Amino acid sequence: MTQSKKTVELRPRLPEWLKVQMPGSPRYMQLKELMRSQELHTVCEEAHCPNIGECWGRGTATFMILGDICTRRCHYCAVTTGRPFAVDLQEPKRLAETVLAMNLRYCVITSVNRDDLPDGGASIFAACINRIRDVLPECRVEVLIPDFAGNWDALGKVIEAGPAVLNHNIESTVRVFPRVRPKGNYNLSLELLAKAKEIDSATVTKSGIIVGMGETTDEVLETMRDLRGVDCDLLTIGQYLRPSSKHIAIDRFYHPAEFEELRVAGLQMGFKHVASGPLVRSSYHADEQHDAAFVPLSLASKS
Question: What is the 8-class DSSP label of residue 197?
């Protein structure tokens, strides 16, 4: 009886709209083998993303560079925390080879936090962008970056490499933030997004919010307004799912209708595109989100 109660507390019964099929398509298995052969990590696996079967089945993935050990411990994240290994200088080359092998037209790159490095790993981000451009010029690269501990020279390195989208997730609201991201800083995340536009006004910026961690809807709307206040272009909003008993409990499940209301509110605030739904994650269908936001209006009207 006690074990059953613990199971209920950790994994409450999922609503129908959060249930997905187990991965296992031929394309999924092929991509998994490719990742292992190139000794690459993906946030899809490390963060236990519920969309891994769908995304890998359609031949897309979010690569995680700089190893799989994070120097921070966020209370909602499944990525391993500890002391990272030395930087692998050959990683950008292997990543570019994999992108070429997959013949990707859109690639997302993220990383663990590397507070042990002077530039937080920014130089490796830049090297990955440049390597991919060398082997596959038509591939657009989106980066999902950490806050680099406020090192704006490091941020400049990434922006100079010319990513199609620069993403930095704020994750939660100002009240809940310290509880779920104790080593992060809400205002610093906003400052990073503002600084990106200051370094290069043409930079397309993006951020993401996870709901269900104890915030109110009004607080989510407040965070959305804060993001628009620093001219953030794109936004994702998705449901928090508890990875283990060591992570914070799920406060509640948002209904799809609530996600739709947040999407509409975001568009009214001026975001160029808002992806809002129970299974939405920061890089979920990132190529479609980018294209939907920046396709010429004349083309959009014909579709």
Answer: H
Taking each helix axis from N to C end, the angle separating 91-102 and 26-37, rounded to the nearest 10 degrees, works out to: 160
Phi, psi (deg, nearest 5) at residue 167: -110, 135
pLDDT tens for residues 201-240? 999 999 999 999 999 999 999 999 999 999 999 999 999 9
pLDDT 10s digits, 69-117: 999 988 878 778 899 999 999 999 999 998 888 888 888 999 999 999 9
With CA atoms as reference, report the closest residue to 261 among 225, 210, 220, 200: 220
- Is 167 in contact with 145 (CB distance < 8 Å)? yes
**84 with 67: CB under 8 angstroms?**
yes
Q: Which residues make Cβ contacts (< 8 Å) with residue 89, sequence separation at least 6?
A: none
Could you tell me which of 89, 50, 92, 86 has the C-alpha nearest to residue 69? 86
Give CA 263 to chain center in angstroms. 18
The CB density around residue 223, as the number of other CB atoms within 10 Å, is 26
The HSE-up count of residue 154 (CA atoms within 13 Å, CB side) is: 19
For 234-284, the DSSP string reads EEEEEE----STTSPPP--PPPHHHHHHHHHHHHHHT-SEEEESTT--TTT
Q: Tokens 């690639």 correspond to what residue?
A: 107
pTM: 0.84
Q: Which residues of 14-23 are buried (b: 16+ CB within 10 A; e: fewer)?
A: eeeeeeeeeb
Strands 62-65, 140-144: pairing kind: unpaired
Instruction: Take residue 138 and report the two structure tokens written for it.
Output: 């038509």
Q: Locate 266 and state its tokens.
A: 């975001």
